[in-house]
Write a structure and sequence with these properties.
Number of helices: 21
Distance between the termini: 65 Å
CATH topology of the largest domain: ABC transporter transmembrane region fold
Number of strands: 10
Shape: elongated
Structural class: alpha/beta
CATH class of the largest domain: Mainly Alpha
Oligomer: single chain
CATH architecture of the largest domain: Up-down Bundle
Helix content: 55-70%
Number of domains: 2
Length: about 575
């Protein structure tokens, strides 16, 4: 319940709409509750006396009350919808903003499919709670209290039946809610699983088709879809017990009223019109209790979704800035001081251990090593995608933890092997590096990155639509565009993490020569091919998370068995 109360604080400007909706429901309910007493008068005074004028007047009053109830009900729907969808939008925005603050360790705690569900499905549940639950939540207690009041005022003896039936209904509702509550949590997790399978299949659709695994993926989807069907069926089967239980209680109540009320009419202690009006109140009260029970079920599901949403909002970003961070990076020098790193405290071993390395501003460094040696992990510490477990990483002579994250990452550009382009044009994507970059600056960055030659062949040039994720360009073209995008940042440190793996060696050589002409920029190459790093000022060899050796190409050929083995294997394989 605390989670739900917290989320209600996001109503903000929509509190007014919700308050107006509450007032409209109150007015609508009041008009509806007047009608049964009018009906009793119409029967007992108009029909019994044969007074046509009285019947017409009373009927007109009833019609007027019904029209007012209809008008206020329609007005309520508008204000409730504004409040529900406005509230949902504000929660969704808060969730998304929090996710943008996450560091990689925070994101690693949640599956992508689960985050998507919490941004969409769980918020839809919260919106439905207002759209479908707010009206009966307000209306039911009013109708219940006023209905019982009017019932007792008409005939206290018959109204005692309410006193007997109501506790039974409450006990039944409590038992149903207690059983259904944990089932809703399972249902939402099952939705996460379904979204996860769909997301993975669509992301890897080319691989699926290349290996002709459509049938396997269909079966996998069928299994998780069946689990969702079963979870939904079991949950709703338990929840709908509420309806027959309340209907049985309602009919039992009506039978008792008809029996005792009919006896009173026969004995002359109760008029027929009063019994008719009383039965109308009974129907209103019992229907209001049935609606209230549905609200409790909606609330139960909302609580499960509210908890999942609050888990996103409560997740504290691992990387925190100081109150007064450094915002100016002096130069592109990088230093690792006895750095040790592991991805989590539960990890069995350190990914990096005792890394000590000093890189001068403007120096070109190559990093090479086997798969899993920690190359990519090492450079991710430079722009503080992760924090060191022990030791320190300095950029421009200052510990990266003392910098503003925005300033640090603006000064460090990292180009990954698997790069992502966004939907839109080439120009839109490249301006991620510099939103104010002119076309001349964009073309210059493309020339250095080797992207100009193929962009000039495109009829639309920089206005070429790349499609979702850059599907309209090849892997090598995508890498070159990503290099151009990074260059537009004019970074002090440029990190290329195997970012030319999809281009031919001749193109890679041209790109490397152009980059070498950029003075004052520290360049760090991570590669599997020695040809990528052999011309660097120094080459760092990583082995098992430790620095095995450092030196120039010629020095390492003489002194490093690891480097010599890699060199000879690639020479024989024709990779150089």
């Amino acid at each position: 319940m605390d989670d739900l109360k917290r989320l209600l604080s996001y109503l903000g400007p929509y509190r007014k709409d919700l308050a107006i909706a509450w007032l409209l429901v109150f007015i609508e309910t009041s008009f509806e509750l007047i009608i049964p007493s009018m009906m009793a008068d119409l029967i007992d005074e108009g029909v019994a006396a044969g007074d046509a004028g009285f019947m017409v007047a009373k009927g007109a009053q009833m019609a007027f009350c019904a029209l007012l109830a209809l008008a206020t009900g329609l007005a309520y729907a508008r204000f409730a919808a504004r409040a529900a969808y406005g509230w949902g939008a504000r929660i969704r925005q808060a969730e998304y903003s929090r996710i943008q603050e996450y560091a990689f360790p925070n994101i690693d705690k949640f599956e992508t499919s689960s985050i998507v569900t919490r941004l969409t499905g769980d918020i839809t549940v919260m919106q439905n709670a207002i759209n479908n639950g707010f009206r009966p939540l307000v209306r039911s207690p009013i109708m219940l209290l006023l209905g019982i009041f009017f019932s007792f005022s008409m005939n206290a003896e018959l109204a005692i039946i309410f006193v007997i039936i109501t506790p039974l209904l409450g006990i039944g509702l409590f038992a149903i809610v207690r059983r259904v509550a944990p089932m809703y949590k399972v249902l939402q997790k099952t939705v996460d699983g379904l979204n996860g399978v769909v997301e993975e299949d669509l992301r890897a659709i080319r691989t699926v088709k290349a290996f002709v695994r459509e049938g396997y993926e269909e079966r996998r989807f069928g299994e998780v879809n069946a689990r969702l069907r079963k979870a939904g069926s079991d949950t709703n089967s338990a929840a709908v017990i509420n309806l027959p239980f309340f209907q049985a209680s309602m009919y039992l109540c009506i039978l008792l009223l008809m029996y005792f009320g009919g006896s009173m009419v026969i004995e002359g202690t109760l008029q027929f019109g009063e019994l008719t009006g009383f039965l109308t109140y009974v129907m209103q009260v019992l229907n209001s209790m049935m609606m209230l029970s549905n609200v409790f079920l909606l609330l139960t599901r909302s609580l499960a979704s509210a908890h999942r949403i609050c888990e996103i909002l409560d997740e504290v970003p691992v990387l925190q800035e100081k109150d007064d961070p450094v915002r100016t990076i002096a130069d592109g020098s990088v230093e690792f001081r006895l750095v040790t790193f592991r991805y989590s405290q539960e990890a069995e071993a350190d990914t990096l251990e005792d890394i000590t390395l000093s890189i001068r501003a403007g120096e070109t460094i190559g990093i090479i090593g086997g798969t899993g040696s920690g190359k990519s992990t090492m450079v991710q510490l430079i722009d503080r995608l992760y924090d060191v477990s022990d030791g320190a990483v300095l950029v421009g002579g200052v510990d990266v933890r003392d910098y503003s994250l925005h300033s640090l990452r603006d000064a460090v550009a990292m180009i990954l092997q698997k790069n992502l382009l966004f939907s839109g044009t080439v120009r839109d994507n490249l301006r991620w590096g510099d939103a104010d970059a002119s076309d001349e600056e964009i073309w210059q960055a493309c020339r250095i990155a080797g992207a100009e030659e193929f962009l000039r062949r495109f009829p639309a040039g920089l206005d070429t639509d790349l499609g979702q994720g850059g599907v309209n360009v090849s892997g090598g073209q995508k890498q070159r565009l990503c290099i151009a995008r990074a260059l537009l940042k004019k970074p002090k440190v440029l990190i290329l993490d195997d970012s030319a793996s999809a281009v031919d060696t001749a193109t890679e050589l041209c790109i490397r020569r152009e980059l070498q002409r950029l003075e004052g920029m520290t360049k760090i190459y991570i590669a599997q091919r020695i040809s990528t790093v052999m011309h660097a000022d120094r080459i760092v060899i990583l082995d098992g998370g430790r620095i095995a050796d450092i030196g120039t190409h010629s020095q390492l050929l003489e002194s490093s068995p690891i480097y010599r083995e890699i060199y000879e294997s690639q020479m024989k394989g024709g990779m150089l």
